[in-house]
Write a structure and sequence with these properties.
The protein is built from one helix and five strands; from the N terminus they run αβββββ. The radius of gyration is 31 Å and the shape is elongated. By secondary structure, it is of the alpha+beta class. It starts with a helix and ends in a 17-residue tail after the last strand. It has a five-stranded antiparallel sheet with strand order 1-2-3-4-5, with no helix packed on it. A hairpin with a 2-residue loop joins strand 2 and strand 3.
């Protein structure tokens, strides 16, 4: 019984000390400085590398094909047939063929990076 009373007393004592300290800290905010202005994005020229893909939409009969390119290199196609179930064709690597991907769960793609080019 005495231990419970002692624990409650210590808890109330700690609370009595912490509340005024918290109120004092709220009255004196730290000295804040404004952030510098964010520079505008750089302009891209024709010879520079672009990170955003170029999308070309092609209609073949009743089918729609969207070609995705980065630096004029085709890496993905989205094919939407007339019946409306789209699928994707992804380029496996530079020399390889195309792999078909359907649905929200993509197949596991093994990374193949080009380290050196001669």
């Amino acid at each position: 019984m005495l231990g419970v009373i002692m624990r409650r007393f210590l808890f109330l004592l700690a609370l009595a000390i912490a509340v005024p300290l918290r109120a004092m800290a709220a009255d004196n905010p730290p000295k804040l400085e404004p952030l510098p202005e964010v520079p505008p994005p750089p302009n891209t020229l024709d010879g520079e590398v672009s990170a955003e893909p170029q999308i070309t939409i092609i209609k073949k009969g009743s089918d729609t094909i969207e070609e995705y390119r980065v630096n004029n290199e085709l890496y993905m196609m989205k094919v939407t047939p007339f019946h409306g179930v789209p699928y994707y064709l992804l380029k496996e690597d530079q020399e390889g063929g195309w792999s078909r991907m359907e649905g929200p769960n993509p197949r596991i793609s093994v990374p193949k990076w080009v380290l050196f080019r001669f």
